[in-house]
Design a protein that fits this description.
With 357 residues, the protein is α/β, with parallel strands linked by helices. It has seven helices and twelve strands. Keywords: Leucine-rich repeat, Membrane, Repeat, Signal, Transmembrane, Transmembrane helix. InterPro entries: Cys-rich_flank_reg_C, Leu-rich_rpt, Leu-rich_rpt_typical-subtyp, LRR_dom_sf, Wnt_signaling_inhibitor. This is Trophoblast glycoprotein-like.
Length: 357
């Protein structure tokens, strides 16, 4: 009897339990001013996230008040004109994250309708083509993240054209296997550059001089996790690092990756003389040092030649001066000799000692 009553009571609760679990099983429908159906909002419609929904294009019905939009793990492939504001502008969108979305091409005015956008993250996308006006619709863009996004094709020339009219403050290029400083991608006024986890073995003197350009003197760089090779070619970077350490945000973490005797050595503790620079190595630093010594020797030789010419042109006057000096010395010595003889004569001494004689 008790078991029958328990079963009856449990049966009465099953419909209510089904109603409680129904919202978890059915995805939310798109609502005007709410979240689009393939996405969800966190706390408010101002933060929209679409993660691993395999979208082929950006969601159309986005809340007009959205501030942050994150789309990850989709297949957007191409960002076309006004890709995120085709239906209506998004005047408050400030941060747009598009990671792992298989974006290969960005067409002109792809960010049209996003006037307040300040941060764009395109990391982990196999970019192949970037139009010169790709970022023209976002005049306030200040941070661009391209980590592991330049591996599929060489895009330096295309990106240089796309970035030339922007006022970027931070540019992230980590994990792109860069072997040299991408100076063409550094717009004037850039404040932070992330070059971590690339393939940089050194920075040449010409690259370091580019960091002293008028519009880049305040630029701070991150160079961690690069295979820096501590040989003679690293000397320009080592000298620059000692004088500009505050401009390298992770200077204390920089280590030598080779050669084996120096592997793991901190660059800030590395002495230039252990790099083995010499004139025979043909390194730029060694050539500069050799040239400075040669110049110093030439200057000393010229000074010596001028001195000898002065002596030759004034040989008669010098000879006369030496003769006069010799005569003066002789007269002085004769005077000393005469006084010595007077003091040593006993007759003079006795005459001087006997008064009245």
């Amino acid at each position: 009897m008790a078991r029958r009553q328990a079963r009856a009571a449990g049966g009465r609760w099953l419909p209510w339990l089904g109603l409680a679990l129904l919202p978890l099983a059915v995805p939310p429908a798109a609502a005007p001013g709410g979240c689009p159906s393939p996405c969800y909002c966190v706390a408010t419609p101002e933060l929209v996230q679409c993660r691993y929904e395999r979208l082929d294009e950006p969601p159309r019905e986005l809340p007009a008040s959205v501030h942050n939009l994150s789309i990850a793990g989709s297949n957007l492939s191409v960002l076309r004109r006004a890709a995120f504001a085709a239906a209506r502008p998004l005047p408050d969108l400030r941060l747009l994250r598009l990671r792992h979305d298989n974006i290969q091409a960005i067409e002109d005015m792809a960010l049209q309708g996003l006037p307040a956008l300040r941060t764009l993250d395109l990391s982990q996308n196999p970019l192949v083509s970037v139009a010169s006006g790709a970022f023209s619709g976002a005049p306030l863009l200040r941070t661009l993240q391209l980590n592991q996004a330049l591996l599929a094709a060489p895009l330096e020339e295309q990106l240089a054209l796309a970035l030339c009219n922007l006022s970027l403050r931070r540019l992230e290029l980590a994990g792109n296997r860069l072997q040299e400083l991408p100076f063409a991608l550094l717009p004037a006024g850039l404040e932070e550059l992330d070059l971590r986890n690339n393939s940089l073995q050194r920075l040449a003197a010409a690259e370091l001089r580019s960091l002293e350009a008028p519009g880049l003197r305040g630029l701070r760089v991150s160079l961690g996790a690069n295979p820096l090779r501590c040989d003679c070619a690293l000397r320009p970077l080592l000298v620059w690092l000692r004088s500009s350490a505050p401009r390298v945000l992770d200077a204390r973490s920089l280590r030598c990756s080779g050669p084996p005797p120096l592997r793991g050595t901190s660059l800030l503790r590395l002495r230039p003389e252990v790099l083995g620079c010499g004139a025979s190595e043909g390194g730029e630093a060694g050539r500069l040092e050799t040239a400075s010594y040669v110049f110093f020797g030439i200057v000393l030789a010229l000074i010596g030649i001028v001195f000898l010419m002065v002596l030759y042109l004034n040989r008669r006057g010098i000879k006369r001066w030496l003769h006069n000096l010799r005569e003066a010395c002789r007269d002085q010595m004769e005077g000393y000799h005469y006084r010595y003889e007077q003091d040593a004569d006993p007759r003079g001494a006795s005459t001087a000692g006997t008064p009245g004689l």
